Amino acid sequence: MQRVCFLLKVRTDRVAEYRVRHATVWPEMLDALSASGWHNYSLFLREDGLLAGYLETEDFEKSRRAMEATEVNARWQKEMAPFFESLDGTRPDEAMKPLGEVFHLP
User: Fold this and answer.
1) Residue from 40, 20, 36, 18 nearest 28 by CA
2) Are 92 and 81 in contact (CB under 8 A)?
3) How far is Cα 20 from Cα 91, in angstroms, rounded to an integer?
4) In which region does residue 88 sit, left (phi positive, over 0), alpha (psi from -120 to 50) or beta (all else)?
5) What is the reported pTM?
6) pLDDT tens, residue order, the chain (106 aa)
7) Largest alpha-carbon pair distance within the chain?
8) Which of 11, 29, 48, 49 has minimal CB crowding within 10 Å?
9) Across the chain, how many H-helices and E-strands are there?
């Protein structure tokens, strides 16, 4: 099982709304994530907009491709894109660059 962590930056003026949106994630989005192999997926958000994501999956690239192929993900990414800084024309899910793990205590 791969453990994946990534960072993104939410616009500070959109932090409160980002929290609200994630309190009510669409059921079909949740189903697609699970079906695509995303497990123990968590997002952590600081008030300055720093967002840390964590998930576990058998194969991160395969899970990303599976989500990319879903219609619900396209809709979700389109709605979420305005919340983020520095996407440089990419979707939020494309901007997720995993951090290298340097320590793990099982």
Assistant:
1) 36
2) yes
3) 20
4) left
5) 0.90
6) 999 999 999 999 999 999 999 999 999 999 999 999 999 999 999 999 999 999 999 999 999 999 999 999 999 999 999 999 977 778 888 888 899 999 999 9
7) 38
8) 48
9) 4, 3
Q: Whole-angstrom Cα distance, residue 40 to residue 34?
A: 9
CATH architecture of the domain 2-83 equals 2-Layer Sandwich (3.30)
Tokens representing 48 are 């300055």
CA distance 19 to 68: 23
Residue 87, pLDDT score? 79
Task: Look at residues 19, 20, 32 and name the one whose alpha carbon lies nearest to residue 93.
Answer: 32
Report domain extents, the chain: 2-83
Place of tokens 């907009």: 49
Residues in the chain: 106
Strand partners, 20: none
